[in-house]
Design brief:
This protein is an alpha+beta fold and 460 residues long. It has ten helices and 27 strands. A seven-stranded mixed sheet has the order 13-10-9-14-15-19-18, sandwiched between helices. Strands 22, 23, 25, 26 and 27 form a five-stranded antiparallel sheet that branches. A three-stranded antiparallel sheet has the order 1-5-4, with no helix packed on it. Helix 8 packs antiparallel against helix 10.
Length: 460
């Protein structure tokens, strides 16, 4: 009834072709997916008794590449970041670990929800074995062994989220450990999301990380929060997101909301960028599209475009009216006006979600960027008058058929021409064409074919 994220049986996936609920296909805007980790997340929980079907392709064999005379087999992944691919979350445990971490009750436990997102979950603490609170022990939950001791973590920046888990003690060892507080400060300095549950918010106060922020947390330590410069919002409040700092209280009741808050603060994802036509002429509009996904909801999608005077933002839309395909399918588009012959447009994509997280593609933009160059539709010399819809049948020769087409355009059928530069002949002899197709161009064509035979103007 509440779960929205599901994992398929394989990873890495090559393509997801359909997602269905009881045989009814879902639109792309109704789910997000991760091909690398092999999960699907629905916008709305499917409800009890509903069958979710996912059609996908994957490779049973390693991929192959040959370069420099060497042959390599590898598993094709979009990126690799230690300690694991995908989202890495490091949980900080201390004595009296609470039952909400792994309890088997009507709601998914914290660890079940985090693993349900498809994340790589790691644990750390100042001791190898973490004792449980009395309630946990009473319901049969045993001590936890951490994956790493805090002194053994070499690079906190390898993690996306650092999470201080709830318990009955408020992490007393972590609270009083300079080494642990230094780790938490390093996480913030490295741009890692830091989340604290209930009594552990006092650790953020001890690390001097909540000055000027709104926080929630256990009421026993309200004075510590305010002394650290925070505004305390109380003991019964949904999770509060302040940049990359998240605080929560009452983990039994706000368990799902806190897990989803950590998920929503993750940066949005850009899943593909392209433009068309791939080789535009100087009379073609250029459509840039990008597929973007974010659990918190996207606030702004822009193409940063540079045609010679520096990058400037152009807003992209998912409304079905900007070359983006169907509205609401998570594909955003924008149409750029035609570029002059030989002009190159460099561009990259920048997106921002509703909680202020952003992403760019390419990752090192604007050092790297996508580009497209416009080429003139005219080749050789002017005079090859081709009318719509025969634009792909240009014969490149100037003869009576071109004269006939020009007369048809001006006086008879009024069919549009395919290439202004080809038709714009005046003035003759060769000078600077005037950018208008009129009787002057007809006179120039007749003069070229039958009277004084002046040369035709060259293409630019």
């Amino acid at each position: 009834n509440t779960r929205k994220l599901f994992r398929v049986d394989h990873k890495v996936l090559h393509e997801v072709s359909a997602v269905e609920l009881d045989g009814t296909p879902l639109a792309p805007g109704e789910y997000c997916l991760d091909l690398v980790e092999g999960w699907i997340s629905l916008a709305t929980p499917p409800g009890a008794g509903v069958t979710l079907s996912v059609r996908y392709t994957y490779s049973e064999d390693l991929d192959l590449t040959v370069t420099g005379g060497r042959v390599y087999q590898f598993e094709n992944r979009r990126y690799t970041k230690p300690p694991g691919d995908g989202v890495n979350i490091l949980l900080v445990l201390d004595q009296q670990l609470g039952a909400n971490y792994d309890i088997n009750d009507a709601s998914n436990s914290i660890i079940e929800q985090l693993q349900g997102f498809g994340w790589n979950v790691f644990t750390t603490g100042l001791m190898e074995t973490i004792p449980r609170c009395s309630y946990s022990a009473g319901v049969g939950l045993g001590p936890q062994t951490v994956d790493y001791l805090i002194p053994d973590i070499p690079n906190i920046a390898a993690y996306d989220i650092l999470c201080l888990l709830p318990g009955s003690s408020g992490l007393p060892n972590i609270y009083s450990s300079p080494e642990a507080l230094s780790l938490i400060n390093d996480a913030v300095d490295s741009g890692v999301i830091v989340a604290a549950w209930c009594k552990t918010v006092r650790v953020l106060a001890a690390a001097d990380l909540i000055d000027g922020l709104n926080v929630v947390g256990h009421a026993d330590y309200a004075a510590e929060y305010t002394a650290a410069g925070a505004t305390y919002l109380g003991n019964d409040h949904p999770p509060v997101i302040q940049g990359k700092i998240i605080t929560s209280v009452r983990s039994r009741f706000y368990r799902t909301e806190m897990c989803e808050a950590m998920r929503d603060v993750l940066p949005p994802d850009i899943l593909g960028v392209q433009h068309y036509p791939e080789e535009p002429s100087d009379h073609d509009s250029i459509v840039i599209t990008s597929r973007a996904c974010d659990f918190a909801g996207l606030e702004l999608v822009t193409a940063q475009v540079d045609t010679g005077d520096g990058f400037f933002p152009v807003v992209m839309f998912d409304d079905g009216m900007h070359g983006d395909g169907p509205a609401g399918d998570s594909v955003y588009g924008v149409a750029l006006p035609p570029l002059s012959h030989g002009t190159t447009a460099r561009y990259y994509i920048e997106i921002t979600d509703s909680v202020g997280q952003s992403a760019i593609e390419p990752l090192d933009a604007p050092v790297s960027y996508y580009s497209v160059t416009a080429f003139g539709c005219c080749t050789g010399e002017r005079g090859n008058v081709v009318l719509v819809p025969g634009c792909d049948n240009a014969d490149q020769s100037v003869d009576v058929s071109d004269l006939t087409n020009l007369i048809d355009h001006l006086f008879i059928g009024f069919a549009d021409y395919c290439c202004l530069e080809e038709v714009d002949l005046s003035p003759l002899p060769p000078g600077l064409p005037d950018g208008v197709v009129d009787v002057g161009d007809l006179t120039g064509m007749i003069d070229h074919l039958f009277i004084s035979f002046p040369a035709l103007p060259p293409c630019r």
